[in-house]
Structure formats: structure tokens, C-alpha cells
Amino acid sequence: MESWLIRIDAELLKQAAIQLVTFLIYFVVVKKFFYDKINGIITKRKEMVAASLESAKSADEKAERLQKEYDEKVAAIENERIEIIRKAATDAQEVKDRIVGEAREQAGAIIENAKKEIEAEKAKAQEEFKDTIIEMTMDAAEKVVGKSLSREDHLDLINESISMFKEV
Q1: Do 141 and 157 touch, CB atoms closer than 8 A?
Q2: How far apart are CA 74 and CA 68, in angstroms?
Q3: Which of 1, 27, 130, 157 is most exposed by smallest CB count within 10 Å?
Q4: Is the distance from CB of 19 to CB of 25 less than 8 angstroms?
Q5: Residues 94-115 pLDDT 10s
Q6: pTM of the model
């Protein structure tokens, strides 16, 4: 009965030995001529990867430092903006207060001038009224009496008439 196992015969052993020797020769040749070159390439590659990682780490640190500086500058600019707005508001309030003060002074001066003009017009009107009353009184007295009165009589009549009009 034949088994399922591979039969090992002399030909198979011979081919296996040849392949083993060929492999060992190939291994020795590769090690002798190519191992140092391949190892150098691998080492250079490792160094390049390490340098790239170091460069990336350095770039990352630099980026973080720049981001921090940027954030500080933005904060400083924001503080400066707030200070400028605060100063502008203060200056605007001062200008407003000054303008309002000047307007109040001008309004006060205008009112004072108006009061003076009113008083002057009132005095002028009273004087004109007094003159008109004097003339009317003198005309009335002359018509009633039928003759001219003396200066003292005129003044007495005028003062009486003025007193009566003041009461009215």
C-alpha cells in the first residue's frame, strides 16, 4: 500500500542539496557584495526619517511659538483697540460737555440780552405811554378848565393820572 507521504528518494535529496548549496552561495554573495550597501541604504533611510521627524518636530515647535506670538499680538491689538475706543468715547464726552456748556452759555447770554431788550422796550413803552398820558391829560385839563395850567398844576395832574393808570 502506498502512503500519502512524499517519498524521499535519492533524486529529491540531490535536488534539495543543490538548492541548499545554491541558496548558501547566493546568501554569501549577497552578504559579501550587497549587505553593506543595503545596510547603508537602510541606515540612510532611517537617518532621513529621523531627520524628517526632527524637522517636523522643530517646525511644529516653531509653529506653536509663532501661534503664541500671534495670539499675544492679537490680544495686544485687541487691548489697544479697546483703549482707543475708550479714549475716543472719553474725548467725545469731553467735546459734548464742552459744546453743551458753550451752548448753555450762549443760550444764557441770548436770554439775558432778550431780558435786557424786553426791559428796554418795556421802559420805552412805559415812557411813551407816560408821554401819551401826559399829553392826553393836558389836553383834557385844558378842555375842562378852558385855560392853560401852570407847570405845577400840570405835574400834579400827571402824577394823579399815572397813579390811576398804575392801579388799573
Answers
A1: yes
A2: 10
A3: 1
A4: no
A5: 999 999 999 999 999 999 999 9
A6: 0.42
| Single-letter amino acid code for the residue at 106 | Q
Find the angle CA(93)-CA(98)-CA(87) to the nearest 5 degrees.
30
- Closest Cα partner for 160 from 127, 128, 138? 138
Q: What angle (nearest 5°) sits at the alpha carbon of residue 97, between those of residues 91 and 100?
A: 140
Contacts by 101-109, CB closer than 8 A, 24 or more apart? none
Reported as a pLDDT band with limits 50, 70 and 90, residue 1 is very low
70: helix, coil or strand? helix
Distance CA 82, CA 121 (A): 57
Model confidence pLDDT, tens digit, residues 116-166: 999 898 888 888 877 787 777 767 766 666 556 677 777 777 777 777 767
